[in-house]
Amino acid sequence: MRRLYLDRNLQYVFGVTLMAVLGVSSIIPALPDIMKGLHLDAQRIGLVISAFTLPGVLFSPLVGILADRVGRKVLLVPSLFVFSGFGFACFFAETVQQLLVLRFFQGVGAAPLGVLYSTMIGDLYTGPERGQAMGYNASVLAMGTAGYPAVGGVLALLGWNYPFLLPLLAVPLGLAILFFMQTPEPQKTGSIKEYFAAAYRRMKTREAMSLFATTLLTFIILYGPLITYLPILLSHRFGASSATIGLVFLAASGFTGLASFQLGRLTQRFGQRTLLSAAAVFYGLCMLFTPHAPSLLLTIPPVICFGLAQGLNIPTVMTMLTTIAPMEQRGAFMAANGLLLRLAQTVAPMIMGGLYAMGGMNAVYTGGFACAVAILLLARFCIVNIDHNAPQHPAGNIDKTA
């Protein structure tokens, strides 16, 4: 098998993935400095994140439709420039209101990126290479998520606004994609009504609905027990500092990258359903042992289990979705999956907050364990006949005008 990570087209996709996670990860360390610099209180600092992520919720369906109907590159390149321009403009914001408006429009540019990188991998590769490429891309995403806070933290030492220089990196990436990337493009066939009817027929199949449910459950675990409540547990029970908490999450990201980098080999040896089942078991182990860890050091093994689960689960689900979706509706599939992801981001803290109010930290992790069991049941009894035996849809027309 060729060294797929050296493929120039895949490297461009890696760049898009890194831009997709830059908008939030790079400014997290600067949030306290933004509060001081713009006189923003703790209750409203979350708006700096929400203003950026809101367009993803509002425009995900439209992004999927545009990606399928007008083409991937036609949507991607302007999105990178919008993301870069408004992100850089945040550097010059003098008031909270200015920053929030600019962040919203930066989010408009970012909204298509998360949909397009997975869609384009599905377009570019088939069979075992598709899973391998998804795994490599998940490794890149994990590295970006882990590395951007460190870069943003260093830049924030110069001033709260210096992390907003990083979006400028999207400009050379956009130009390189415009002139050099060869992208398969879907063939626009039929009316918009026929497009919606065909997409709906495929999305309501048992396999697709099961994969969508897996995404929802996965990100409820991530944004509930992990992102929202693990820092509280580490801080209140063990007195962990912010830096220590960051290192614990870094361990998870590292093992996510490790597992996803080996995804191609693991898929060929064990099959996709088995990997999803293994991921569910790792999620369950994390949920069982984290709230009962007797020391800070012993929280790391269950967190590593979570990292392994993410590395096996997310790129596998993406691979399976892009396999069952024909190119002409693949953008819609990825947009629907992204919408469920953002729904989980929204409802997970509320669901787990209700469980915490009823039963404390143990109830939160019991809820997470229930999600892990549900993922396991879906993998074993609902997700079938996708793997590499699923029909491979034509790759469409390669755009060689670049």
Please supply descriptive tags for the structure shown above.
402 residues; mainly alpha; Growth Hormone, Chain: A; two-stranded antiparallel sheet; 2 strands; disordered C terminus
What does this structure look like?
A two-stranded antiparallel ribbon has the order 1-2. It is globular. The protein has two domains: about 1-180, MFS general substrate transporter like domains (Growth Hormone, Chain: A); about 195-385, MFS general substrate transporter like domains (Growth Hormone, Chain: A, Up-down Bundle). Helix 3 packs antiparallel against helix 4 and helix 3 (about 45-70) packs parallel to helix 5 (about 95-125). The chain contains 14 helices and two strands. With about 400 residues, it is mainly α.
How are the secondary structure elements laid out?
Layout: H1 8-25, H2 31-37, H3 47-69, H4 72-89, H5 96-124, H6 127-156, H7 170-180, E1 183-185, H8 192-203, H9 206-238, H10 242-261, H11 263-270, H12 272-289, H13 300-324, H14 327-381, E2 397-399
Antiparallel strand pairs: 1-2
Helix pairs in contact: 1-5, 1-6, 1-7, 3-4, 3-5, 3-14, 4-5, 4-7, 5-13, 5-14, 6-10, 6-11, 6-13, 8-14, 9-13, 9-14, 10-13, 11-12, 12-13, 12-14
CATH architecture descriptor of the largest domain: Up-down Bundle
Total of DSSP H or I helical runs spanning 4+ residues: 14
Could you state the order of secondary-structure elements as H and E?
Answer: HHHHHHHEHHHHHHHE
CATH class of the largest domain: Mainly Alpha
Overall morphology: globular
